[in-house]
Design goal:
Two copies of one chain form a homodimer. Chain A is α/β, with parallel strands linked by helices. Chain A is built from ten helices and 13 strands. The first copy, chain A, is globular and about 50 Å long. Chains A and B meet through helix 7, strand 13, helix 9 and helix 10 of A and helix 7, strand 13, helix 9 and helix 10 of B.
């Protein structure tokens, strides 16, 4: 079942203890789409400048991603650069050049509007809301946000997520949005804001899913080397929604499974872990569905008792 | 099967965001023994002063803990006081009065020496080594340590743990002992130091067990209120070794189960979570084995997929 992904497409400059790359393909919508493409037909909505390289278009198209919604305009593509701390748990932004992304005003191609699944990457909440309004009647719509919007556009963000089925944020954002330091209490408050399903990403510590009175928790995969965590949270999102779309899952059905939702969190974790194994999107040049499914089984092996 | 527990017995003064207690029963051996007592006959080796209250002796004895190894001497019992930060992830030590504990030189009663299970709480590594030497031929012996000994008594610590079956430490200590920031690499190095089984406690994030090339990871239990984390790591140890002793498990058998070892980590996690629900040892005044087994099943429910 087809998935629409909306968000940034960018070039990134990244420095980690394992090395440095001056300029490489990045952006939330890029990572989400690449990860989701292993599970379902994916349609990307974003904006790039005339410097966007043919080889990057080919990488996306080569994964079967529909690019009708990728607007090309005069100017430069969004550029972000950052440097990670030695333990990789924090990063400093060195450069943010919005470029053509400053005028991003997503318009969905007609063929996108009746697709059943929608994943909104982190962009200004008003834009996310406008995209949601353009979709006819999705089975499952949700997205990500960030501390900036919780801080400076709280009311607009609340109006936006009120219409979502799921919200997918990290632990710091969950605490900030709810005003609760305890994550179980934070989840309870956030589930009162609209989304009936909440996924909280905890970086190296894994992820949690809350729905009604039920919850599911998975620890993070133990990588021996984290080369570059950039995009890991977005790849989690792509694996999560991609798997649900593949299954044709309808989250409005009033149950949380030991079933599809939990397995979607595992596939999200799997995709996030692969993302960290190489710089940028490099891992997706060779990654196969068989590797993904093998790591899914690894999760089962190291968590079951 | 009977377990010998060695370590501090103390009075603690604790302040958390939920309140403050001036003086209450504490100490590693106290928490380990109380937790283990739900699973197996437990024998405590420690030292207290003549101020040790009858009601505290009664609490321990009431849980069936053998106190022949609890030495009583003139002077005051070890006293520690600390204050937790608002998020409970850190604490500041306000007072450490070793008192009679400064002269602790554990001597095992004759009846303790041929018991099959030994858990060494965090004390000076030379003392731990002396206790290990007093045991005849335990099926399973291991213990805990702390950053202080890794720092100031590294060689003595290495000689001590070389003779252990298992080492049970927190993530910061594992990084410090191994010199590796990545926990999977850290575990590999530590398993080369003697213990064939390593348990790494991660506080609110759960725990990991490493043995050979295999590992098991469990996320932490999501408590709505952490009243007082004091003793949680020791209760984890008590649940872990207590369950293995109850099962009559022999860790020298060359396998890691999806079996007993993983379940021992869950029981450790269960006991650590109960410990945090009230101040000090209060939770153990009412806790039942039925509650413990029910929470074990909760772990299964929120982690299985």
């Amino acid at each position: 079942m087809s998935l629409v992904v909306v968000g940034s497409v960018a070039y990134d400059g990244v420095e980690t203890p394992h090395g440095r790359v001056e300029r490489m393909l990045g952006g939330a919508a890029t990572y989400i789409s690449l990860a989701a493409s292993y599970f379902t037909k994916t349609r990307l909505v974003g904006i790039v400048g005339d410097d966007f390289a043919a080889e990057d278009t080919e990488l996306l198209a080569g994964r079967g991603i529909d690019l009708e919604g990728l607007e090309r305009t005069a100017g430069k593509t969004f550029f972000w650069a950052g440097k990670y701390t030695d333990d990789m748990n924090d990063r400093v932004t060195l450069t943010t050049d919005l470029n053509v992304f400053a005028d991003f005003n997503p318009k969905l191609p007609a063929s996108y509007r009746d697709q059943p699944y929608l994943m909104l990457g982190n962009i200004q909440p008003g834009l996310q809301r406008s995209v949601r309004a353009q979709m006819k009647n999705p089975r499952l719509a949700g997205g990500d946000t960030m501390n900036l919007w919780i801080d400076i556009a709280r009311e607009e963000l609340l109006a936006t997520i009120r219409e979502w089925d799921f919200l997918l944020i990290n632990d710091g954002e969950a605490r900030m949005l709810s005003g609760e330091s305890n994550l179980r209490k934070a989840a309870g408050k956030i589930l009162g804001m609209g989304p009936h399903t909440l996924v909280i990403k905890r970086g190296e510590y894994g992820a949690m899913l809350f729905r009604g009175d039920s919850y599911f928790v998975v620890p993070g995969y133990l990588l021996e080397d984290v080369f570059d965590p950039t995009g890991a949270g977005d790849c989690f999102a792509g694996g999560f929604i991609g798997y649900l779309a593949e299954q044709g899952f309808d989250l409005s059905a009033n149950h949380i499974g030991r079933g599809d939702l939990s397995r979607a969190v595992i596939y999200g974790s799997v995709m996030g872990s692969f993302c960290c194994e190489k710089f940028g999107v490099e891992r997706f040049r060779s990654l196969t569905r068989a590797e993904i499914d093998a790591r899914f089984e690894e999760f089962r092996a190291f968590t079951s008792f």
